[in-house]
Design brief:
The chain has a single domain, classed as Growth Hormone, Chain: A, CATH 1.20.1250.20. By secondary structure, the protein is an all-alpha fold.
C-alpha cells in the first residue's frame, strides 16, 4: 500500500486554508487518541505484571522469583520496541505516516485482546507463559512503530513555531493511557475482590481494547498525510532504504536521543510498575487500590503538565526545560524513596501522587527535541530508533534492576542512586545534542553536514 498522489496533492493544497486548521486539529486528535490506545494496552501489561501475572502465569514460584519472572516478560516487550521502530520506521518514511499508524494500531489491539483471553498456567502449563511472552513481543513491535509516527503526524501538520506544543499532544497518550488502564484495573479490583480479580477481573480491561481500537481506527482514517511527507512524495525525494541511511548518516543523533531518555524513561517505569510491587509486598503491606489510586492521580497530574512544558519549550528552548527536569529527577529519587519508606501513610500516598512531575518536565518537550534531530525523509525511522533504543537500557530493565537492588541492599536508596546515575547520563547526552527548536526542519539543508563533520 502506498500513498495516493491525489491525497499527497490534497495535503499540500490545504496549507494556509481553513481546511488546514481542520486537519491540524484532526492530526492532533488522531495522534493523541492513537497513542492513548497504544499506551493503554502497554501499561495494562505493566500493571498486571506487578499485581496479577505472578499468580496467573508463574504460580509455583516464590514472591521474589515470581515477580522477577513476571517483570522479565515485561522487559521482553521493551526489547522488541527497537525492532518495531526499524520495521515501521522504514515504511513510515517510504509510504507515509498515516498508513503505517493504522497498521500499528491494529497490531497492538489484537495482541492485547489475545492476552485477555489467554488461559493461565493452571490450565495450559508452561505453554501459557510462552504465549504470553510472544504476545508481549507483538505489543513491543507495535508500540515501537507507533510513537514516532504519532509525533510526526501532529508535529508536521502544526505551526512550526509551536512544534513543542504540537509534539506534546501525542505524549498525552502516556498519561491518558495510564489513567485509563490503571483506572479500569482499580475499578475491577475494587468491585470484584482479590480472588475474582486474579481469576477473571483483570481480563476485562484487556478485552476492552477492542472498543478503543475501533474508535482510534475511525479517527485515523479521517486524516490526510502530513504536508512535509507529501512534499517529499511529490518531489520524488523518498529514500529507498531510510532506516539504513539514517543509521549510516545520523548515528550520533540516534545514540544521543536514546541516552537523553535515561532520566525520563527509567524512573517512569520504577514509579508506574516497580512501586506497585514494592508497596504491596509484606514489608510495606499497602493494598493494591492504595497504590493504583495514587498512580491514577500521578497520571492525571502529568496529563495537565505535559502540554504546558511542551509549550514552554517553544519559548525557552527544548534543552533548558529538559535539563531542568533531568536535574530535578536526580534529586527527586532520594526524596521519593524517603517518603515511600517513611511508614507514614499520607506521606507515602503523596509520594506516589507526585512521582511523575520531574518526568513531565522532560516528556513534554521530548518528542519535538528528538524528532527535530532528523530530516523529514529519515525522521520516522531516526526518531523511532533513538526513542525506542532507550527501552533496552532504560525502561525495559528498570523494574527488574530495581527489584534486584532492593533484594541485594534492602533499601530504597539503592534505587535512588540508580535514578541519579540515569540523570547524569541524560545531562551529558543533552549537552552533546544539537537544539533545532529554532530551525526550519522542512528544509533538508538544515541537516547538511560540513565535509569536516562528515569526516
Amino acid at each position: 500500500m502506498t500513498l495516493d498522489p491525489g491525497e499527497a496533492n490534497a495535503s499540500r493544497e490545504v496549507a494556509g486554508t481553513a481546511d488546514h486548521r481542520v486537519q491540524v486539529r484532526r492530526a492532533a486528535l488522531a495522534s493523541t487518541v492513537g497513542t492513548t490506545i497504544e499506551w493503554y494496552d502497554y501499561f495494562l501489561y505493566g500493571t498486571a505484571s506487578a499485581l496479577v501475572f505472578p499468580h496467573v502465569f508463574f504460580p509455583n514460584a516464590s514472591h521474589y522469583v515470581g515477580t522477577l519472572e513476571s517483570f522479565a516478560t515485561y522487559f521482553v516487550g521493551f526489547a522488541a520496541r527497537p525492532i518495531g521502530a526499524a520495521i515501521f520506521g522504514h515504511w513510515g518514511d517510504r509510504i507515509g505516516r498515516k498508513v503505517t499508524l493504522i497498521v500499528t494500531l491494529l497490531l497492538m489491539g489484537s495482541s492485547t485482546t489475545l492476552i485477555g483471553v489467554l488461559p493461565g498456567a493452571a490450565s495450559w502449563g508452561v505453554l501459557a507463559p510462552i504465549l504470553l511472552i510472544l504476545l508481549r513481543i507483538v505489543q513491543g513491535v507495535a508500540v515501537g512503530g507507533e510513537w514516532s509516527g504519532s509525533v510526526l503526524l501532529s508535529m508536521e501538520w502544526g505551526d512550526q513555531k509551536r512544534r513543542g506544543l504540537m509534539g506534546s499532544w501525542p505524549q498525552l497518550g502516556v498519561a491518558s493511557g495510564l489513567i485509563l488502564g490503571t483506572g479500569l484495573l482499580t475499578l475491577l479490583s475494587t468491585t470484584t475482590g482479590d480472588a475474582a480479580f486474579t481469576s477473571w477481573g483483570w481480563r476485562v480491561p484487556f478485552l476492552f481494547s477492542l472498543v478503543l481500537v475501533a474508535i482510534g481506527l475511525y479517527i485515523r482514517l479521517k486524516i490526510l498525510e502530513t504536508p512535509m511527507f507529501a512534499k517529499l512524495l511529490l518531489e520524488k525525494a523518498v529514500k529507498k532504504a531510510p532506516v539504513l541511511e539514517v543509521i549510516r548518516n545520523h548515528p550520533k543523533e540516534i545514540l544521543l536521543s536514546a541516552l537523553v531518555r535515561m532520566s525520563e524513561q527509567m524512573p517512569f517505569y520504577v514509579v508506574t510498575a516497580f512501586v506497585l510491587s514494592y508497596l504491596t509486598d509484606k514489608d510495606h503491606g499497602y493494598g493494591n487500590n492504595f497504590v493504583l489510586i495514587g498512580t491514577l492521580i500521578a497520571a492525571a497530574v502529568e496529563f495537565c503538565l505535559l502540554p504546558y512544558f511542551g509549550h514552554l519549550s517553544d519559548s525557552v528552548g527544548r534543552k533548558k526545560i529538559y535539563m531542568t527536569g533531568a536535574a530535578l529527577m536526580g534529586v527527586w529519587g532520594f526524596v521519593y524513596f524517603a517518603l515511600l519508606d517513611s511508614g507514614i501513610t499520607w506521606l507515602v500516598f503523596l509520594a506516589v501522587c507526585l512521582g511523575l512531575i520531574p518526568h513531565a518536565m522532560q516528556y513534554g518537550p521530548q518528542a519535538s527535541l528528538i524528532a527535530e534531530s532528523f530530516p523529514t525523509s529519515l525522521r520516522y525511522g531516526g526518531a523511532g530508533l533513538g526513542y525506542q533504543l532507550a527501552s533496552v537500557v532504560a525502561g525495559g530493565p528498570a523494574a527488574l534492576v530495581a527489584t534486584w537492588l532492593i533484594h541485594q541492599f534492602g533499601t530504597g536508596y539503592a534505587v535512588s542512586v540508580y535514578i541519579a546515575i540515569s540523570a547524569v547520563i541524560t545531562l551529558a547526552a543533552l549537552a552533546a545534542l544539537k537544539d533545532y527548536s529554532r530551525s526550519d526542519i522542512e528544509d533538508e539543508a538544515t541537516y547538511a553536514r560540513s565535509p569536516r563533520a562528515r569526516a
